[in-house]
User: Fold this.
Amino acid sequence: MNNNRLNFIWILLIGLLVSLGGCDDFLTKEVLGNSTDENFFDTKYKLQAALNASYDVLQMDLFNECEWRFGEACADDVWGGDEGLGSQMGQLVHFRFNTSNEWIRNRYDINYKGIHRANQVIANVNRVKLSIYDYNSYREIREILGQAKFLRALYYFNLVKTYGGVPIRQETETVDNLVIPRSTAEEVYAYIEKDLREAAIMLPARYVGNDAGKADEGAAVALLMKVLMYQAIPGEKSEKWEEIVRLGEFFVDGTPLTFGEILKFDNTVETWEALRKRLWFQPQEEIQPSDPYETDNTLLNPLHNAYSIEYKDYYGNSISYVEQFFQIGEFCKGSVFEVVFKESADGSGGDENEGTPIYTNHYSTSPQIWSTDAIIQEIFSSDARRSFMIGHQQYAPDGEIAQTGPGRHFSLKWYTPIKDRPQYGGDNGKNRRLIRYAEVILMYAEALNECGKGDLALIKLNFLKSQANKIDNSSNLYVGGGYGYMRDQIWKERRIELCYEWDRFFDLVRQGRAAEVIKIYGAKRANKRGYYFRKGINELFPIPQSEIDISNGIVVQNPGY
Amino acid sequence: MKNKHIISSKIIIITIMMMTVNISCEQDVIKNPKATIEINKDKLNINESLQIVFTGEADQVVIFTGDDMHNYDLRKESNTGFVVDKNVFTYSYATPGTYKVVCIASTYGDAAVNLQFDTCAVVITVIDDQTEIDRLSCPQILYDEVFAERLANDNWIMRLPRKVRYNNLTPSIALSQRLKFYVQSDSTQFFINGNAFESTKKYDLSSTVNIDVKSHFGTVRPYTLHTLYYPEFESFKMLGVNGKLKRTEFDYSSFELEITLPNGTDVSHVIPEFKTYAATDKIYINDVEQISTVTAVDFTHNVTYKIVSFLAGNSDIQAIGTVKIKIIYQ
Assistant:
């Protein structure tokens, strides 16, 4: 090798090193014209877009599929078309699944997807730059943040009632905190409560007009009541029952409630001004004389006139009982929070009219779940709401003949009237009612009874029953009795009024009688579906096996699995 | 030269094609399955987690847990196993017994042909030593279920109403009642005063009931159940007028006693005459003991009597009733 060639190689190597050094600048160059997680959340519009993505999870078919599969199909009000032990669904409803069951995995994943998206809003709200530092600008951001907190609470509630304590994800995810151990159920419930208490003071009483459908104060307080009820044990005195009564007095009777009361505000933990800033109330130093200044003594917006048990649509016009669940009844007086189905939120035309499949799958000639004569008799007996079940070749309210198959009955709550069915890409699917005012009344009544106020509980219970009696001019009312008798009547009314709204299984679990009820139901079935429910184990589903595996043992499985 | 290149290119292409053909013609080699498992323990309590780790060789692993509907020996009679995912399977047993856990490791070729399998088995013993009573009730106090209160040392106290108000009727409640036990295990047995418990039989609760709870494992735990009626006035008279006891449907321990007196009656210093059902009952107003025909009361203010019944021989076990006096002037 001569010197010239050696020099050439040295020059080439040096040139290569220099050019590599230049690559470093190129790689670290600031991205212009594109959004990053650092700069995306700088306006309220972008924060709103992030919030929309969190709502979008509620609209996803998978979310709703998991809702009916766990809340309805696992309980005793339906039979199913997929009950063979060869399928994942069949194993689920038989309580003969293993920890790798796909539906157990799906429910876990889809709710964490919602949590992740809500966390994006909550973690990045402080990146928003206001153009005007006035009261309304703060209020707009505060309401977005409040809705994100509500949604996060809703998703965590779904998880904790299904799996028990779950990992509480950090609001900002990094590669260093991907594996998080489970928190206890008590810690998760405390986390949910905090979100809901704060959402209640951040949101308006009820969204109307173009904003109808957004989570509001009514939704936050109603869900808080339910979250408290799931922590309270029937027959055992507790502060949870007492607080449900207090919230019921506020929601239903109109007894005033302050910000401080619902927050359980403690100024040794956080000053009021720090709380105001964290929740995007206008900072004290920026307040103009005409602006309101909220204190811990500020009263929550009253809710008792915002909702009604009367069957009235959004505008106050009378509708029938079952129309509350149709398009005409969307945002009706008895609806507190709905999953609003719109065109696919990502703008694609591929998944048109979200929400439609979950109803058409039930209300079809080959339904996934259905009821029977015996179950209907057990639920309703002579109650007028029985008439909103429909059997094979019977007529729906708009005249359509039901082809349910002999012996099968559907709830008209699942029915989409012909005129409501989406035909074109931009049409809306029928909204799903997630929280109704009737349930608020029933939670209030149950808590009153648990607090030794059976007489007041009876008044609330019959308040609801009297409305249902108007369907057929019946005069049957519930009758006063001791604690156990009142509790049974309230649970009976819960089953009638809230049936087929995909919550029965979790209601039985929190009442502490899932094993008793589901095993009796299973014993009556030829395939014994439900008979193998294991008391003390199956009240909770297992953490998906893949979560245990990837966490390398940090995430611990539920007992018995 | 050009032809030479073309020929060599063809040779290369043909060689590659032949190699490809050779690869696809390769026989589908199926591994021999090997069924081996490790378990975390072979003696369990009911509902305790059993972890089975598959350590063998297989394309698919199925576990028959040996309990009802999962018995390997009955696999041709619709009993099924559980497919194992990622070599780990967890389970628990609801009923005690001895179970043969069978693991089936199988391998197969493409399109699930040439199925081969291997099995192994372990025996699991599940014991049930549950003797804890979670709750205890009289399930049919008319239409109500009345729960007993747990006291110290496995004592329970059942407080029952003497009468209940229901639909404007006031039927009496006897001390002969059915009992209902809430326990974690279906295998637990109960013995009442030495005899096997029957859920439809009425038991005499007028004296202390001895309850033996026997677990499937054989452990016997004794409990005692005491019963008291909520105390109330059997009679109450003031100024020669009998009062009328009124009860509520909702609270068996609270009463209202109505007395109708002539307008203008001075009730500022009245000595009432009253009687309760048990001679040992104590009667108080604001923690001051009241003696019939002895203690004077100012009825110009709201007056509420507290009546305390005690269990004979154990004054710590009590039932308390309250009676609010309502005077109606005519």
Observations:
- Chain B touches chain A at residues 47-49, 68-70, 80, 82-86, 88-92, 94, 135, 137, 141-147, 161, 164-167, 184, 186, 248-252 (CB under 8 Å).
- The mean pLDDT of chain B is 91.
